[in-house]
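Saturday, quiet lab. Running sequence design on the structure tokens for the scaffold JK sent over.
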């Protein structure tokens, strides 16, 4: 009998209880209510019509419900992803004179993001979720939020702003102060204040829902459109339809690179959201399986004429708060929004754009994690600097370039973390087995004539020179005459060819000083590389040991116990140009 693969939804519904259905239906309606304002507002960030946001809140929810692994995660439009999408679309249309529209380009980008998710799933690249560190993402999202805030100037003032960046648009607004449409600005500020009041008093009805209801009601009663306030306008009353977007007139290279940028940011932020809510729900998230869910959601988005999506913090939070138990809540939310499209399009038509600007501004402010930045400053000042670099990227160089800045900052941070490996001198405690770090264990004493040290990190091309300098300093500081210097390599997981050459050269230098170099407890891959490079043969197989105890036994067999050498402690002076905090003999 042919065994067909089961949909993840069926696995998630195992053990489903009938009593949960009421909670799932309530959660689905609440998700739709909370998602409606952002579904209408977010497309404006990328210059897309409001209905695309509604479509992005329907078909991707169904796709993730069918193929996603999480019981409670809700996908949909995301402010950070939309801002990156806006930058990609701007770049694509700046280099293309074709006839394609922004909706088609956005749908193609959603397809590309979905395919990248599935490819990454096949090759198990879920590790990409941890590629952008939390400090980098905290800074990046803060920069994104400031970009979103600046982008709302036109919606809340009615003034067309051409400048980019953070300060220039504000200065341009001041120069055009006479063009401000004051009723629009006052109404936007009132909506923003209403959102803050709802948040402060923990309103059971979400603030954006209240603002949309009040804004539509006032717009109907006082004819805001007739008084010069911009409204959303006509929203198609049909359901999203299947359509394969055409590539004609669009640059494939720009779409591919832009899709990769959206994929990295949306998947990184999506998995962080998934992990955060999984911790609340008491279960674990598999990033590789999430790639399947996100891939299906984005492919569905592209095939139904909308834009890339990812996990939605606000919608998932509502699902948790109301008590949603399964992805049935997503299906109910999608069905509710279908009803809105079919029957409430005329009502949403008169929604003032200023209200959407206020919702987006409030959303942007919520993305700025002040407590997170403060904690990073307290825990690690270097990480805080990189968070600021990631924050500056979207503001100073544009959102798309900001993605590159965030990735580059991550790479630089990773390199800095491993550029200066820890090292420590080792010694013995009389009457006890094993070796101990001299700077941490006061009872430990160096073994006469037997220099022992530990290096704690991979030896790679960019830190090989530093490690050689440190080992030469150690060799110079050893009591005379020390016959052997044995490196405990148990904490060296990797060695590359550059580091292998360095060890070979170090062996020659030490030999000229009358000191024999030895290596103990090499990892299998590291030893294999040293054998292929000829370093093991140069050092001598007799100086490669399974452990430090074996090395000491070999030394004492050859020279005798104590060897008549002094037992004073070894002093290694720190290298001033290297940062402190565990380096230079402080491993």
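Result came back. Writing it out in full:
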């Amino acid at each position: 009998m042919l065994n067909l693969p089961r949909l993840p939804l069926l696995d998630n519904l195992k053990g489903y209880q009938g009593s949960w259905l009421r909670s799932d239906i309530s959660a689905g309606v609440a998700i739709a209510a909370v998602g409606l304002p952002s579904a209408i507002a977010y497309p404006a960030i990328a210059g897309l019509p409001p209905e695309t946001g509604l479509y992005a809140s329907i078909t991707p929810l169904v796709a993730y419900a069918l193929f996603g692994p999480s019981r409670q995660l809700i996908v949909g439009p995301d402010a950070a992803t939309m801002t990156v999408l806006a930058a990609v679309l701007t770049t694509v249309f700046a280099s293309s004179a074709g006839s394609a529209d922004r909706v088609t380009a956005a749908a193609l980008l959603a397809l590309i993001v979905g395919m990248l998710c599935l490819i990454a799933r096949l090759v198990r690249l879920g590790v990409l979720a941890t590629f952008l560190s939390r400090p980098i993402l905290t800074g990046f999202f803060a920069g994104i939020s400031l970009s979103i805030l600046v982008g709302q100037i036109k919606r809340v003032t009615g003034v067309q702003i051409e400048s980019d960046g953070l300060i220039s648009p504000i200065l341009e607004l001041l120069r055009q102060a006479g063009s401000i449409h004051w009723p629009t600005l006052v109404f936007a500020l009132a909506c923003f204040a209403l959102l803050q009041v709802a948040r402060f008093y923990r309103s059971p009805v979400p603030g954006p829902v209240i603002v949309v209801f009040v804004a539509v009601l006032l717009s109907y009663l006082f004819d805001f459109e007739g008084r010069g306030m911009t409204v959303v306008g006509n929203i198609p009353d049909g359901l999203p339809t299947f359509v394969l977007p055409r590539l004609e007139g669009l640059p494939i290279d720009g779409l591919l690179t832009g899709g990769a940028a959206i994929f990295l940011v949306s998947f990184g932020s999506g998995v962080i959201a998934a992990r955060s809510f999984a911790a609340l729900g008491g279960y674990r998230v598999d990033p590789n399986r999430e790639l399947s869910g996100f891939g299906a959601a984005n492919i569905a988005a592209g095939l139904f004429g909308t834009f890339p999506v990812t996990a939605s913090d606000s919608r998932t939070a509502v699902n948790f708060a109301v008590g949603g138990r399964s992805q049935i809540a997503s299906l109910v939310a999608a069905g509710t929004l279908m009803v809105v499209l079919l029957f409430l399009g005329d009502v949403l038509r008169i929604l003032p754009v200023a209200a959407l600007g206020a919702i987006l501004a409030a959303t942007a402010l919520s993305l700025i994690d002040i407590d997170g930045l403060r904690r990073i400053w307290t825990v690690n000042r270097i990480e805080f600097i990189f968070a600021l670099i990631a924050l500056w990227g979207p503001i100073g160089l544009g959102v798309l370039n900001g993605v590159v800045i965030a990735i580059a900052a991550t790479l630089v941070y990773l390199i800095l973390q491993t550029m200066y490996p820890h090292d420590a001198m080792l010694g013995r405690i009389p009457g006890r087995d094993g070796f101990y770090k001299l700077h941490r264990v006061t009872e430990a004493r160096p073994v006469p004539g037997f220099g022992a040290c530990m290096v704690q990190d991979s030896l790679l091309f960019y830190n090989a020179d530093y490690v050689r300098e440190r080992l030469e300093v150690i060799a110079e500081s050893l009591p005379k005459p020390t016959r052997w210097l044995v490196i405990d390599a148990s904490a060296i997981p990797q060695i590359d060819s550059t580091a292998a050459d360095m060890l070979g050269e170090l062996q020659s230098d030490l030999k000229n000083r009358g000191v024999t170099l030895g290596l103990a407890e090499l990892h299998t891959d590291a030893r294999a590389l040293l054998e292929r490079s000829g370093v093991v043969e140069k050092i001598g197989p007799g100086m490669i040991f399974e452990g430090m105890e074996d090395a000491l036994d070999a030394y004492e067999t050859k020279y005798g116990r104590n060897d008549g050498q002094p037992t004073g402690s070894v002093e290694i002076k720190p290298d001033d140009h290297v940062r402190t905090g565990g380096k230079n003999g402080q491993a």
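Notes for JK: Confidence is low (pLDDT under 50) at residues 566-570, 573-586. The longest helix spans residues 252-281. Ask whether to fix the surface positions before the next round.
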